[in-house]
Amino acid sequence: MLVNKTPEFKPKAWYNLSSNMQRALIIGFFITAICLYFWIYSRYPDLDAKAVMSKSGTVSDLLSVWPVFTVNPSDSYFIKILKSYINWIMDNKKGMTFGLVIGGLVISLFKYIKFEKSKYSWVNSFYGILMGTPLGVCVNCAMPIFKGITQHRKIEMAFAMMVSSPTLNILIVSLTFSMFPFYLAAIKLGFSFFVVFLVVPMISKTFGEQQHSGSEAFLSMSTINAYDECSVASSSHESWFASFKQIIKDNYYSFKFILKTTVPLMFLAGFLGSIIVHSLDISNLNTEGGAFSLAIISLLSLLIPVPVSFDVMLTHALYEGGMSIAYTSILLCNLGIFSIYAFFIIWTSGLKKWAIGLLGSMFIFSYILGLCAPILHKKLYISPNISDFQAIRSNSRKDATENLNSIRKCKINLAVQNSKKNCT
Predict the structure, then answer these.
(1) DSSP string spanning 220-241?
(2) Following CA atoms 138, 144, 149, 152 in sequence, which dihedral angle do they give, to the nearest 10 degrees?
(3) Range of weakest confidence among 13-17, 107-111, 272-276, 384-388
(4) Residue 10 clears pLDDT 70, i.e. is over it
(5) Residue 335 — φ and ψ, nearest 5°?
(6) Which of 135, 201, 200 is nearest to 166 (CA)?
(7) Taking CA 353 as the corner, what is the angle to CA 352 and CA 355, rounded to the nearest 5 degrees?
(8) Residue 406 falls within a domain, yes or no?
């Protein structure tokens, strides 16, 4: 007797993920764990400490917050450069290590997940802000991550992340507003949004994203094939252990690429930045300066590779020391948002027109701001404060007059009462 057997229905397990999804989840777990550890035990405690230090209005070195070697005025020019260079390396070692690790992981992450770009440039820039704002690393430490993102041609996101990380973090923004007049802090904040939502989309529309060339712009095809041989289709499945093994293999090539293309330029940029800061005569910044001097400061301030939040601390120290408002406006906007190291990385990523366009746009805006700064300072800060002072002074005089009249009335009343008593 034949019996018809109905095939047993076996629901697909929730954990039966595709191999690419498994690898993406593993890499995402490592990125999240590393970021949380870095933020909790290093970055945000350091930013809090810098906020406390900034109240003193002084800095020990022009390139580092916590210098290992004290740069003395009596030191020779070469010794000053060498000390500041070593201080800069030591001050950036944590952030740069973090950037190198995340940059390598990002290359592998975007290999396994599809992140479709929007046709609107400002949307891609917004994604970059969401990624960069919580990072809280300086523009130098963000460059390995920038390098990792650009390997998958997410250019606008990479630039927005690069700009927002050192300038739009909530602690850095609050520090800026607490140390400078409101209008100056607002200009700095507006400058960052101007670069992210106007300059970057404008450059993207003008030059496009097909600027990548050369053997070092991207991982070579032979390297990609080398760690893609074990890759499987997104619909297939493999064990979690196999996914982990493939991730280790992938990240070996990713980290090798990141180290090769970013670390040598980092050391070069730090040395050049030390030369720049010790070639400037800080005492000349106390004068208003002419158009040529403002142009020089506008350009050089975009190239100095300062650590995160040190742009605010250094500018505040110089501002408290009597630096003119024109130079203060330029330094507050330019320091930290770009650097010579960022220029090197963008240039060697095959984005030469982007590097020149971004540097040129920020230079022009900051230069115009420096020219207009005295007028803005007078209208937005000095004049309102003078009016408030005069109003307070007028009210004080009025109150003093009323108090004096009250005292006189009391004396008259008291004299009348005494005279009545004497008559009785």
Answers:
(1) -HHHHHHTTTT---TT----HH
(2) 160
(3) 13-17
(4) no
(5) -65, 130
(6) 135
(7) 65
(8) no
Q: What is the mean pLDDT of the chain?
A: 83
The alpha-helical segments, DSSP class H, found in 280-324 are 291-301, 310-320
C-alpha to C-alpha distance for 344 and 146, rounded to whole angstroms: 12
Domain count, the chain: 1
Banded pLDDT at 260 (limits 50, 70, 90): very high
Report the candidate in 295, 370, 280, 388 with the shortest Cα–Cα distance to residue 332.
370
Q: Report how far apart, in Å, the C-alpha atoms of 117 and of each of 114, 121, 154 are.
A: 9, 9, 7
Instruction: Tell which residue, 126, 58, 63, has the closest CA to residue 90.
Output: 63
Question: For residue 338, what are the β-bridge partners?
Answer: 335
As a whole number of angstroms, the distance between CA 123 and CA 108 comes to 23
CA dihedral 232, 237, 242, 244 (to 10 degrees): 90
For residues 218-232, average pLDDT: 43
Structural domain includes residue 28? yes
Contact 311, 331 (CB under 8 A): yes
Do residues 343 and 359 make contact, with C-beta atoms less than 8 angstroms apart?
Answer: yes
Residue 12, amino acid: K
Query: What SS3 state is found at 338?
Result: strand
Its domain, for residue 81, covers 19-226+239-378
Residue 153's pLDDT is: 76
**Structural domain contains residue 34:** yes
**273-287 residue pLDDT tens:** 999 999 988 777 777
Token code pair at residue 403? 């108090």
| 420 within some domain | no
Count of positions (residues) in the chain: 424
The answer to whether 354 and 212 have CB atoms below 8 angstroms apart is no
Q: Using the structure block, give the residue that is written with the tokens 């000349």.
A: 284
The gap from C-alpha 144 to its chain's centroid, in whole angstroms, comes to: 14
Q: Which among 96, 166, 168 is positioned nearest to 126, based on CA atoms? A: 168
User: Which residue did the predictor score with more confidence, 385 or 35?
Assistant: 35
Q: Enter the tokens of residue 121.
A: 């440039």
Beta bridge partners of 335: 338
